Amino acid sequence: MVALASLASLVGCAAVFPRHTTASREIPPAMLEAGGLTPPPDSLHHLGVAGAECPQLTRDGRPWDGDGRPDLFVVIFRNGQEVFRSRTIENNFAPSWDSATDAIDLFVRPEDVFRVELRDDDGALVPSEFVGMVELRGGVPSEARDAGRWQLRLEGGATVFLSSRPPRARLGMGVTFEYRIDSAVIVEVVEASPANTAGLRAGDRVVRINGTDVSRMSELEVRQALDRVMMSDVTLAVERSGSPAFEAIVRSDALYNGR
Q1: Distances from the Cα of 59 to the Cαs of 62, 220, 258, in angstroms?
Q2: Rounded Cα–Cα distance for residues 177 and 203 (Å)
Q3: Predicted model pTM
Q4: pLDDT in tens, 67-119
Q5: What is the predicted pLDDT for the residue at 156?
Q6: How far apart are CA 171 and CA 39, in angstroms?
């Protein structure tokens, strides 16, 4: 009876296929100097937290924490979803962050609702205390781009300083795929990627890579073949539900892993 139950549970389970994300690498300086790489989308920014200024007292007139100084961190939301949280800087009314590393490559479009909050960290057992927030639309202003300073006045009297610079490009295809015996099934395509430029979509079945059938390749060989786009163009034979099979040439070009 136990054996039959185990067999039934196995039959009822969907197959699980190995899943991989294609690799990426730094772009060689000579390639950067030569130019010709696809630039990032206008709405993609390397958005960093530079600093903040906090009122001396809480909203209800109390000193911050036990020693009167707040432990501040910044949270960024896009369309109601948290997309970034900075490090906490302890015991400081005017903390500074490294805007190059306390940062995220983020799509900020004019129609997006962009919210920035400043909070005081009261420890793991106590919810963080709200210092102030601001909501914006219209995208990143021009004065904040190319490492410019973006000053945000929060309700509650606090200030947060952000900066934006172009996102760093890498070389890579920009897909996540499942390896199957006869194909590599695309699960996700990075928006600003050579794969997206080539027309690949989630659900596509890659059945041939540079003239070799996937059915004749091992899992490792498929991964290596797709990662070859870091060195040269890769030609794929693709099957898509409801459409004729087609050929996609994925260029060795810039990849921007924006969120």
Answers
A1: 7, 58, 36
A2: 9
A3: 0.81
A4: 678 999 999 999 999 999 999 999 999 999 998 889 999 999 999 999 999 99
A5: 86
A6: 13
In this predicted structure, what is the pLDDT of residue 140?
Answer: 85
Confirm if 20 and 38 have CB atoms less than 8 A apart. Answer: no
| DSSP secondary structure string for all residues of 44-67 | EEEEEEEEEE--SB-TTSPBBTTT
Q: Which domains does the chain have, with CATH numbers?
A: 17-39+170-255 (2.30.42.10), 44-165 (2.60.40.150)
At 117 the three-state DSSP class reads strand
Three-point CA angle 134, 102, 151, nearest 5°: 35
State the pLDDT at residue 6: 52
Residue 138 per-residue DSSP state: S
Tokens standing for residue 163: 């900066």
* Length of the chain as a residue count: 259
Structure-token pair, residue 56: 């001396």
Sole residue written with tokens 């200030």: 159
Instruction: Please give the Cα distance from 170 to 255 (Å, whole number).
Output: 5
Q: Encoding tokens for residue 54?
A: 């906090």
CA distance 102 to 60: 30
Low-confidence ranges of the chain (pLDDT < 70): 1-14, 66-67, 123-126, 146-147
Q: How far apart are CA 88 and CA 71, in angstroms?
A: 6
